[in-house]
Amino acid sequence: MRQSILFTKTQKEAPKGEVARNAILLIRAGYIYKEMAGVYAYLPLGLRVFRNIERIIREEMDAVGGQELLLTSLQSQAVWEKTGRWSDDVIDNWFKTKLVDETPLGIASTHEEPLTNLLTHYASSHRDFPLYIYQFQTKFRNELRAKSGIMRGREFVMKDLYSFCRNEEEHAAFYARMKEAYTNVFKRVGIGEQTYFTYASGGSFSKASDEFQTVTDAGEDTIYIDEETRFSINEEMLDDEASLKKFNLSKEKLVAKKSAEVGNIFPLGTKFSEAFGLMYRDESGNEKPVIMGSYGIGLGRVMGTIVEVCADEKGLRWPHEVAPFSAHLVRLGDSETVLTAAEKTYEELLRAGKEIFYDDRKGVSAGEKLADADLLGMPMRIVVSEKTIAANAVEFRDRMDRRVSMVPYGEVFARIGT
Amino acid sequence: MRQSILFTKTQKEAPKGEVARNAILLIRAGYIYKEMAGVYAYLPLGLRVFRNIERIIREEMDAVGGQELLLTSLQSQAVWEKTGRWSDDVIDNWFKTKLVDETPLGIASTHEEPLTNLLTHYASSHRDFPLYIYQFQTKFRNELRAKSGIMRGREFVMKDLYSFCRNEEEHAAFYARMKEAYTNVFKRVGIGEQTYFTYASGGSFSKASDEFQTVTDAGEDTIYIDEETRFSINEEMLDDEASLKKFNLSKEKLVAKKSAEVGNIFPLGTKFSEAFGLMYRDESGNEKPVIMGSYGIGLGRVMGTIVEVCADEKGLRWPHEVAPFSAHLVRLGDSETVLTAAEKTYEELLRAGKEIFYDDRKGVSAGEKLADADLLGMPMRIVVSEKTIAANAVEFRDRMDRRVSMVPYGEVFARIGT
Fold it and tell me: Which of A210, A272, A285, B285 would be A116's cystine partner, CB 3.0–4.6 Å?
């Protein structure tokens, strides 16, 4: 894509009132736009990152047998009454609205109820299970405060998968596969090293849950890490002697670090299946409630965490698989020679199927272009200038490790991923 | 995909209270689920159709230079006050909600205001324009009645593109390109022949608008068609002598037909750019308001219309480019011979990169399987049975024209698109 065409521009100043580092950088770089606190639009470059994260998660969910659907944002009171969660006292961050005839509607904060209810129309025999069903859908949460940028929004897209199994063994086996799938996701989006599998308390549905926590000062949690095993526990479990013993952790070895929860998986038991009568008949004809599990990843949370973990003082640094473009081709100078060489390089890279962002802007200084390239954070910067032309090469610079090398024309393709 | 794994099942009966033919068929086939009137979830097969329509539209929008972003569903009162459209008297189908601190919020019914407002942060020079910006985003509309299935929902995804041009000539040129892009979209989704470019009145923004109307009894409109030129006018313009003359139409030649509006494009003029101060400085430094245009396609509307136009008395019939799968491989019989032959065919088709839905269900009668295949409506049905094995072939049946032919094994791949 040509940078001269892109409608967004970089901004030197952070927007007033924005305190989260991830949002400040993403807004300055033109990746997102703040509509109001906790509500962000995704601009073209940001949407490309978002879609890459979505694609990675989808591939991993499909690999464990997930079936994708798309539930609705408008939700019915009757469905939520079944579990008693319609009440604002139970879910305290509901957004609600109403039809013209005054019928109240919920605006989806989560989807356990609608999905369990839906499944009662399709599954009832032991032959219909197990099922693993997921979606990418917007969640609306009426947070009192929203100061974490895209890491905790009032409106955000979540991948939520729910598992429906016939017995505890089947549930445990799938739960273990999802741990692996999540590990793959965080590795692929580029924060695998900083992300720890974390034992945590379970909230209202279960005694315990398993979190994927990424070490970053922008996090709202504190985890205690055993670096040897890469296992950690959430602060709230630190004084639970039984848990420490269960996971063979010694309190003295644990190191406390600030972290952000990027994924959360936990058993739901039969709370929802019993409320909606989602039962199956086993081989002997006995009715049994389905055992459920819940597996969430907030896409904005992941994107914001990548920014927090990877960015440096010059700007964003995107891991290869989520980057909007593999490389940022920067033309320095507007002379006919440079123009011809840069255009030729761009066209050849495009023809070779590479995803290239091309700074073809005229009348913009070298300093400004290079600063923009640092802020925008494509994994590789490729400079074409009078100097590189004289050397019959282009200049490559890796945004992560900042290493610079001159690459002869013939070797350019091999150096860039697709 | 194996049908035995898919969680949805076909249903013989139409759901109570559902009156729209498109929704009845889609629900019976397990493509969608009715959450409430005008609010439908997309189940795995339905989501595949939906994504195909989305992909086609995206390709056509990118081809005319569209830049994709994703605006928010939660909207601010202040932004909408700028055009006076916050009032329920002006937009009578708003859904609204509020923050914990009682701040009112709009739930997006459309996005002209937020987008125009957003652009004032990025574009101000004549060099920044023209711009063509689009998104696929959910619209929420508090319709009094919702009886048209997925053709008119209270919650639905729309592709909305907005153009921002410097002068009328630039606007007219882009407007003409969008007409072509829309023509391509409707052709590719399989309703090109039934869809007419229609001159209509313009509502509150402009004197006239251009609609793409698809002839179907399920439509809410009536258009008057000149079959020779394939041009038509909306009923409301029939007595406008000036328009008839302008388009060289003679009233006697026009044939009235019921139709559904599948796309709508119209000039917005400077209404929004003036309200938000979206101006550009021309070469001489004079400030001028940007000239806007609006181009919408509702994805559910298109999908519902395809159903209304293409379905027959046995069920759905998907045009090739939007079908969830290119072919439905149906195994008749569970004998070892048939099982082996069907599995081998399935695996070979998958390896060849074909998108195949495979009815591998055991203990289901031939009649039931064939009826399901008709209802589900993949473009091609491929039967493997004792009979076809004896003939060293498979049976192909085209869902559209119902033509049946025996295809020798060696020629199977060539007969199925990707």
Answer: A272
Please identify which residue in the block is written with the tokens 């694609």: A55
- The pLDDT tens digits along chain B (418 residues) read 999 999 999 999 878 889 999 999 999 999 999 999 999 999 999 999 999 999 999 999 999 999 999 999 999 999 999 999 999 999 999 999 999 999 999 999 999 999 999 999 999 999 999 999 999 999 999 999 999 999 999 999 999 999 999 999 999 999 999 999 999 999 999 999 999 999 998 877 778 889 999 999 999 999 999 999 999 999 888 888 888 888 888 889 999 999 999 999 999 999 999 999 999 999 999 999 999 999 999 999 999 999 999 999 999 999 999 999 999 999 999 999 999 999 999 999 999 999 999 999 999 999 999 999 999 999 999 999 999 999 999 999 999 999 999 999 888 878 876 5
DSSP state of B171: H
**B282, B340: one domain:** no
Give yes or no: residues A258 and A373 share one domain. Answer: no
| Mutate which: B4, B7, B103, vs A, most A CBs within 10 A | B7
Residues B88 and B236 in one domain: yes
Question: Residue B7 and residue A73: Cβ atoms within 8 Å?
Answer: no
Cβ-based contacts under 8 A for chains A and B: 124
Co-location of A233 and A269 in the same domain: yes
Whole-angstrom distance, CA of residue B162 vs CA of residue B132: 6
Contacts of A71 in chain B (CB under 8 A): 35, 41
Contact A7 B119 (CB under 8 A): yes
Residue range(s) defining the domain that contains residue B402: 325-415
Let me know if residue B137 belongs to a domain.
yes
The minimal CB distance from B33 to the residues A74, A118, A144 is found for: A118
CA distance A208 to A243: 10
Asked if ipTM goes beyond 0.95, one says yes
B7: nearest CB among A44, A131, A143: A131
Please indicate, yes or no, if residue A335 is contained in any of the structural domains: yes
Count other Cβ atoms within 10 Å, centred on residue A128.
18
User: A338 and A366 in contact (C-beta within 8 Å)?
Assistant: no
Q: Helix, strand or coil for residue B98? A: strand
The whole-angstrom separation of Cα A305 and Cα B128 is 32
Mutate: best of B100, B119, B361, partner A, most A CBs <10 A: B100
DSSP state of B128: G
CB-nearest to B122 from A9, A35, A70 is A9
With beta carbons less than 8 A apart as the criterion, state whether A123 and A279 touch. no
Say whether both A100 and A170 belong to one domain.
Answer: yes
